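Board notes (copied after class):
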Amino acid sequence: MGRRTPLVGRESELARLDAALERAADGCGGIVLLCGEAGIGKSRLAAAGVADVAAVLRGAATEGSAVPYGPIVDALRSRLRTDPLALGECGTLLPHLALLLPELGEPAAETERATIFEAVRCALAHLAHLAAEQPLALLLDDLQWSDETTLELLAALAGPLQEMPVLVVGAYRSDGLPRQHRLRWLRNELRRGGRLEELSLDPLDRDGVGALLEALLPEPPSPSLARAIHDRTMGSPFFVEELVAALQLREALRPGKRGLELADEDDVPLPDTVREAVLVATSTLSEEARTAAEAAAVAGQQLDLAMVAELSSAGGLAELIEHGLLEERGPGRAAFRHALAQEALYSEVPWMRRRELHRRLAEALAAADGSRLEVATHWRGAADEPAARAALVEAAQRSEKLQAHRDAARAAGEALELWPEEEDDELRRATLERFARCAQLAGEMAEAAKGWRELAASCAAREDGLGYAQAQRQLAGVQDLLGERDAAFATRRLAAEAFAAGGEPIEAALERLAMADHHRRSARYREAIELAEVAVAEVTAAGRNDLRARLLGLQGVAEAKGGDYEAGLASVRAGLALALEEDLTPVAAELYQRLSLVLYDGADYRQAEEALDTALGLCRTDGSADTEVACVTCLVYVLRERGEWSRAEELGRELIEGETAVWVAEGLIGAIHAFQGKLASARRLLGSSRAVSSAVGHYNMYVDSTTGLAIVAAAEGLDDEASRYCRELLARWERSEDHHYAVWGMRWAATYFAGRGDRDGLAACTEALSRMASDGGHPDALAALAQALGELALLEGEATTASEHLGRAVELHRSLAIPHERAQVELRAGVALAAAGEREEALERLSDAYRCARKLGAGPLASAAAQQVAALGESVAQRLGSRAAAAADGGAQLTRRELEVLRHVAVGRTNKEIAQELFISQRTVDMHVRNLLGKLDCRSRVEASHRAGELGLLDA
């Protein structure tokens, strides 16, 4: 009879499996992972946990043969062997499932990854339905050897399984699992979704080993025997079982006073390893069974009985099953009782015999159209590298067809490693291209870059200019995704030159378009214009009006930002007119977005918003997704500048949730939070945006995030940090060709430096603003320069001159729709007028600043205006209202009721107690507490109480 290790000391794990099965029976399935060292009994526990209480499907991965969807296919196929029509109700998804299971009929000509995932989900749902009153249990063994697509499929199924009567139990070895193994990613994905349920099986302790020995032996073991076996096996149940079998075979046990003990501890040594114990236990097999064991061990952990019988004998296999070395796994299939047994037997097969068996298995599998990865594994075992390489190439092709890009890249990479250097033929280049393409689609960008780079070198060596250009184009795309923008630019230059030399001017122009856009984002506008002009000439000669329109739009943006606003506006409008005339909807959408860039660069935010609304309408009709994202990010910026902060944040949050342009949205929202006084969230968002914008060389977002962080640091009293950010902003502007975008940052920095008495910093900002105002002549640049000159005069004690300059800035802002900046200018104008002795005019300016800031929700700015009113001896409450009085006290614009609630919160009262005290509903108190926490930028009642104390808001 075959041996089976009893389940000893696993009661808690079985209880947790039972609970998971009960949830699955109620329609709330999921995934349970079992992990532990080799020989710990994971698969045995899984099988015992679901036996008799679930409809069980079982699959496993095989070492060295990571077939796409392998364990899942193995499990589904086990059902098809007993019921060929079991999946016949999968409807339109059946052809996609047939790509994995050819026995289902004609496969789909094309598919997508998501469709295959849905087909597998549908198959499991249907099989669960057939299981009737029992849940469906899917046992997947040895996931440490699984293909990566299966693990990605499990991550995708985790959510749907929670609404299905299906429990997936995946077992894997935890010892020696590489750091980059995809299982670690799966565990992280499940944890992030709150769906990770993992049972970690530890080795048995001495008592556990003793209990296991009692179950395995005909008589109780003595304490000394239990101690000796525990020390030798380190608590591995499989090793314990094999060791007991070896001792019984040697008749090395005898009854003692306290139970069975070693017959003679000096003469009968214990086997030192699992391998030795397995070999001792199999030493009584017949010659026929030993021959079958060799063939089975070479075939692998999972094996086809008929195929192995052809290499040995059916009788020998039957003896292995009777002995317990093999377990039947459905019709015609078997598996070693444990992988360690297969490994031990494989190591004993003579080398020449092993090669011959691998060769015959490879031929048989290939003839049966088996897994090409498994075929390749056997050809490698047979030391036939050319045949292994051919099988791997075919495996990569099949995996790519199944959208298993990560597995396709791995198979192609292994094939390339077997390729002799002197054989640089067409098939090798096709395999290189497949490797790079699939690695890129799998997100393995470093590997993709290596592949495209090697393909480019191969094409160059064969003087294939267009192949070289295409490879360089793909490499540049990968470098862009890696954030290596300068490297991508250099690579695109090589691609453009090769395309041009190969008689492909349109392709060359496309690369120059991308290069010009790179310069535009980096604020190198002259170079962007030069590239665009060359490309315009190329596409005009070729009659490609779509590209000509796009290039004119980009050229116009560079011209406007480079200081020639009118020429830039004319170029963009010319491109837009051409796109509309030719009925090029996607191009027109892009051109409207470009037009908005020029318009808001000229501080015409109303028309910029109109242009963006038009662009978004075209995108949703027949436009590019990338253009739509660009339009939304621009619209968030425009709405921020126009003071529509709620709508701006709403759109920005949608971008973040959609994981598109996240760092841009974070920077724009972060600045709004800085204006509102939400300093903690502002710092987090702005810091994230600045890190990415600095890495990728995005000038505009670097300016935004750096200025925002300076505002946050100043509000937190970190003056050295704020000064550092301002100087970094100045340095970055000096290296650019920007003539406008940094205006708002320079204007704020000028006021900040003035407040600290930093004449050098203020002078540097004033010089920068002077150059921007001179080159561009935009009203907001002129207003910012007037403000800087006013700050300089105020610092020098020339209050009258300061008030004149700042008054000029206020007048210029009357025609601009930039309310937050206008309120800042009015505040500074009020301060200057007060210094000049013009009290009433100062109060009027400060009142305007307060009202504008309050309407925007700019708490810090409103508080500053109210405090300046108070500094003039004016009753803030009478002049501006009770809210302003609170703001003047640093109250973050808390209402009178919110202040009352805050004072009760500070003494520890609950919302219910506060409601009773103030004769209002508890729901109203809940609302006031939420509001005051938001206004004070606090996360808890305790933090709000401390903040209120710091601001002096707790005085009666």
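Comment from the instructor: Strands lie at 30-36, 55-60, 136-141, 166-173, 197-200, 253-256, 259-262, 302-304, 326-328, 333-336. The two ends are 88 Å apart (CA to CA).
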